[in-house]
Write a structure and sequence with these properties.
With 224 residues, the chain is α/β, with parallel strands linked by helices. 45% of the residues lie in helices and 12% in strands. It has one domain: SGNH hydrolase (Rossmann fold, 3-Layer(aba) Sandwich), CATH 3.40.50.1110. The chain contains ten helices and seven strands. This is Lysophospholipase L1. GO terms for molecular function: phosphatidylcholine lysophospholipase activity.
Length: 224
């Protein structure tokens, strides 16, 4: 066989094999998302209006969400470590499959830590909002601001730029609101350090008390 043709065929086979392997590779968080779905299978009452809270670990670790909002059916589909691009892959599994009236989204925290620009993060969230609104036009969406934290305080300026863009995005998008949890976690310009557990990133009960005080005014309690 001509050497050039042989080399070409080997390259073609290698490329084809790579494409097959890439196609078989699981998306990040696939197993965790499946576990979330399985966990909600028995607790979700399809006959009741639903509010979904989703996003990264600050949502996932909010264990008493339903207890704090007893007047509504709350589903927590948070998946720890996720970025906005991860949520975009699972809009059906984590939001739309539950036909919610309202969804609270917390993404951007891990994106900033992963050195993504605020502009790129908001671009992904714009795509998410467009998809959600196209598929469920009456969905009420609340974008929760990025929170400050001890472990990521050195990135505060990037978080502040992100929150400014998120606020602007919400104000320019019908059916979308912005909930600011950044400002209330500060004492003037200093971080309230007693709101966090030992890792300096995730919140303790005091932190979630503050989140509740902000978000309770956004939750539609007339959904049951």
């Amino acid at each position: 066989m001509n050497y050039g043709i042989k080399t070409y065929l080997i390259s073609l086979i290698s490329l084809f094999s790579f494409v097959i392997v890439l196609g078989q590779k699981e998306l990040p968080f696939k197993k965790e998302v499946e576990e979330i779905q399985a966990g909600l299978k028995d607790s979700w009452d399809i006959s009741k209006m639903t509010i979904v809270f989703t996003g990264s670990s600050s949502i996932r670790m909010w264990k008493d969400l339903q207890d704090r909002f007893p007047g509504s059916q709350i589903l927590n589909t948070g998946f720890g470590g996720s970025q906005s691009s991860d949520l975009e892959h699972y809009l059906d599994e984590l939001i739309l499959d539950y036909n919610p009236q309202q969804v609270f989204i917390y993404e951007g925290d891990n994106d900033i830590n992963a050195k993504k620009s605020p502009r790129d993060i908001v671009g992904t969230l714009e795509d998410i909002l467009e998809e959600l609104k196209e598929r469920k036009p009456d969905l009420d969406i609340v974008l929760i601001s990025a929170k400050p934290s001890i472990s990521r305080w050195h990135l505060k300026r990037r978080y502040m730029r992100l929150n400014k863009r998120l606020n602007k995005l919400a104000s320019q998008t019908s059916g979308v609101r912005f909930a600011d949890v950044w400002s209330v976690m500060l004492n003037k310009r200093k971080l309230k350090r007693d709101l966090f557990i030992e890792d300096g990133l995730h919140m303790n009960t005091k932190g979630y008390d503050i989140w509740y005080d902000v978000l309770k005014d956004y939750v539609n309690n007339n959904t049951l």
